[in-house]
């Protein structure tokens, strides 16, 4: 039987104190923050597949009502408290526990506080009550995902910039899984093309056309999709190659200096992007880009759609650390060149923050590669240490500004630091609400066929493309792999 005062005390102290008591070590303090954030970011983790999320919420609500023995307004803390703890409840009554849950709604009186509900769950020992509370958290997740909003493209009105919170993608215990769903592979086309260009010799076709990046890209696609298909290892995966448009996007509206320091695309690489797209056609791969957004945003939106659709195996092929924000137990990152695969634990070990707090860390430490300025004097290690003590970025920024004030009396520097970090947070967080059908022409992942090289001259088309650009060795290896002359 749970002590009701324990839940109330946990509520009063908040999760920050709770996590701090659990561990003082950096990694141990960060891991619970990732694992215990049951909710998806209320501002950013919203899907264009709101119908699927709404159905998920409806299914969870039905289960909640079955357990409780009656229908009730799940979102109201006072009602939920009565269901759990009143004498009329199907559960064992717990006098005084209503106050704990009702307190959860005080910041927003008409909604259950996820933070407090998580704390109540931690203190609860009754299995039946724990099951119902966990289901309510899942219901809140699905409702948040179904709610549209967040980032919009450049040139459109910015109505809601995401607040500081947790994961962009629901985890595997938060939305229904479909074991029959096809594995999804989301390829960072720009990364692969650039990596191929710099990793291959400066090759040219007989007519002088540079093809180094093209050859490298085709080698990578063979390794990534052709070989597993030909060997029968994987014949169900859906593959989408995502490219950047190269144009300004909504982040440039927020910060005109965003990525302006980057060097120009090498002259020999420019024409190869078109060739790489033609290579994707030869492979039978879907290619998309999102005007007004970055390729990373398109990948984020596709990953969220895949998970909401029940996919349990989503692979993002890239080495871009920004994309590590998307990693969950369903979504992993693969560096196809090194074979390194990142799950949640690997992201924490590599970047010193779990996926749900990586954007916070980058906001404080800054990101020189994107021209993002954070808090002066804070690198990744120092940023991780301050984040480990706070549940939100805002609280961490308060500590940073307080530290600055103690060292030097400079209100302008304090204000500038706060502004830089909060702006950086807006710049680094990925957008999961790209309107794919309107911006990219892709109706949905469901419309993407599984990768194959059977029938309709598919293999012959690919081999002809390779020979056209004088990839004789690769063509020979591919024909042997496919058993085609």
UniProtKB/TrEMBL annotation:
The keyword RNA-binding does not apply. InterPro entries: 5-3_exonucl_a-hlix_arch_N, 5-3_exonuclease, 5-3_exonuclease_C_sf, DNA_polI_H3TH, FEN, HhH2, PIN-like_dom_sf. The lineage of its organism: Eukaryota, Sar, Stramenopiles, Ochrophyta, PX clade. This is Procaryotic DNA polymerase I. Residues 182-446 form the 5'-3' exonuclease domain. GO terms for molecular function: 5'-3' exonuclease activity; 5'-flap endonuclease activity; DNA binding. PANTHER family: 5'-3' EXONUCLEASE FAMILY PROTEIN, FLAP ENDONUCLEASE XNI. It comes from Ectocarpus siliculosus (Brown alga). The keyword Hydrolase applies. GO terms for biological process: DNA replication, Okazaki fragment processing. Keywords: DNA-binding, Hydrolase, Nuclease. It comes from the Eukaryota.
């Amino acid at each position: 039987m749970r002590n009701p005062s324990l839940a109330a005390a946990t509520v009063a102290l908040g999760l920050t104190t709770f996590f701090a008591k659990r561990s003082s070590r950096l990694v141990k303090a960060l891991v619970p923050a990732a694992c215990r954030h049951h909710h998806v970011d209320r501002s950013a983790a919203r899907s264009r597949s709101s119908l699927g999320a709404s159905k998920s919420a409806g299914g969870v609500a039905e289960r909640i009502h079955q357990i409780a023995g009656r229908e009730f307004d799940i979102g109201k803390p006072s009602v939920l408290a009565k269901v759990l703890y009143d004498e009329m409840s199907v559960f064992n009554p717990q006098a005084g526990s209503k106050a704990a849950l009702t307190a959860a709604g005080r910041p927003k009186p008409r909604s259950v506080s996820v933070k407090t509900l998580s704390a109540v769950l931690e203190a609860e020992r009754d299995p039946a009550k724990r099951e119902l509370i966990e289901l309510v958290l899942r219901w809140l997740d699905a409702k948040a995902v179904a709610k549209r909003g967040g980032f919009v493209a450049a040139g459109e009105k910015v109505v809601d910039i995401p607040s500081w919170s947790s994961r962009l993608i629901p985890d595997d215990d938060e939305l229904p899984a479909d074991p029959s769903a096809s594995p999804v592979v989301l390829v960072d086309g720009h990364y692969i093309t650039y990596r191929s260009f710099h990793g291959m010799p400066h090759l040219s076709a007989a007519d002088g056309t540079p093809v180094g990046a093209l050859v490298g890209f085709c080698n990578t696609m063979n390794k990534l999709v052709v070989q597993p298909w030909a060997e029968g290892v994987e014949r169900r995966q859906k593959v989408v190659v995502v490219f950047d448009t190269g144009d300004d996007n909504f982040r440039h509206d927020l910060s005109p200096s965003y990525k302006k320091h980057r060097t120009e695309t090498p002259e020999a690489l420019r024409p190869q992007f078109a060739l790489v797209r033609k290579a994707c056609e030869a492979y039978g791969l879907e290619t998309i880009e999102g005007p007004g957004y970055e390729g990373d945003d398109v990948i984020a939106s596709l990953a969220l759609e895949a998970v909401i659709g029940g996919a349990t195996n989503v692979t993002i092929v890239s080495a871009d650390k920004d994309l590590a924000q998307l990693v969950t137990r369903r979504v992993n990152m693969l560096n196809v060149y090194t074979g390194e695969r990142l799950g949640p634990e690997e992201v924490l070990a590599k970047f010193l923050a779990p996926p749900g707090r990586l954007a916070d860390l980058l906001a404080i430490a800054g990101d020189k590669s994107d021209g993002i300025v954070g808090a002066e004097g804070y690198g990744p290690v120092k940023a991780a240490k301050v984040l480990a003590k706070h549940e939100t970025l805002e609280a961490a920024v308060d500590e940073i500004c307080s530290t600055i004030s103690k060292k030097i009396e400079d209100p302008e520097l304090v204000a500038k630091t706060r502004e830089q970090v909060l702006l950086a947070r807006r710049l680094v967080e990925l957008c999961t609400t790209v309107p794919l059908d309107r911006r990219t022409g892709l109706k949905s992942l469901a419309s993407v066929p599984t990768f194959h090289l059977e029938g309709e001259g598919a293999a012959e088309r690919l081999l002809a493309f390779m020979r056209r650009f004088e990839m004789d060795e690769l063509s020979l290896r591919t024909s042997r792999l496919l058993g085609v002359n």
